[in-house]
Please model this.
Amino acid sequence: MKEIYLAGGCFWGTEAFLSKLKGVEHTEVGYANGNMEDPTYELVCTGTTNFAETVKVVYDESVIGLSFLLSMYIQTVNPTSINRQGGDMGTQYRTGIYYTDEEDKQVILEFLSEVQNQYEEKIAIESKPLINYYKAEEYHQKYLEKNPNGYCHIRSDLFEMAKEASDPSQKIFKTKSKEELRRDLTSLQWEVTQNNGTERPFENEYHDNFKKGIYVDIASGEPLFSSSDKFDAGCGWPSFSKPIEDSSIEKVDDHSHHMVRIEVRTKDSNIHLGHVFDDGPKVSGGLRYCINSASLRFIPFEDMDKEGYHDYKKYIKEQ
Model:
């Protein structure tokens, strides 16, 4: 987890907006970079403390990078406005990006340089190390959750945008280590994925599952197959006409058991999935990906948003 501190006018709306982004794990409102200890809201509002209303953002950088996070933040502010956002005026409503990791400085400066190129007027967003930060009073925390009709300077459509946004440069899946897999997989899942095992036909979890959703790699969470490409081949194992993306799998010649077959493995996690044959539906390309249920985890369509797979809904056709 990493953290960044963002000042964008009234912290009620800024906190609510940032909390909706995928990869943001925790948000908190407070006062940053002032000239005294333990400020109160009343003192900050006098304009004499030099504190900025600020949101502390804790985020998972494997899901959302700092550059993308800043690109979302910038949409909620007028970057050329000095000490004012919306109807709020005063130094406490200035815009700023305050960092605790020196490595973030260059990312922030490059981002602000790109923003400046879009304006003739000088932008007013300051970029500084975090000098101090104090958590705001409890009634300010999650203010808009407690007061849905409370004041907010951010346009309502931006909140919907935040819920749908995802960083295209980040993967939502990560291959587990061998130690993690030993801990998390069942004995059957381990045997199939790590030792090229095969589960019993008709006695596995997904052979007769035809609900809407996606099937992901049990070892990493990477999306592999869509329910729209699943068909009943009568073989007793889940069968698909194609993977979601060809780049996610590898095909390997398999001469085991005195047969010549083509094994299917995942490219990133390198687990055994099953085999591919050329006896699939001709209308769908003629292939049959015969896959072990033990290599997969099924995510129902209605759970895809909360599990971070919203962008993969496009691979599921209406039934």
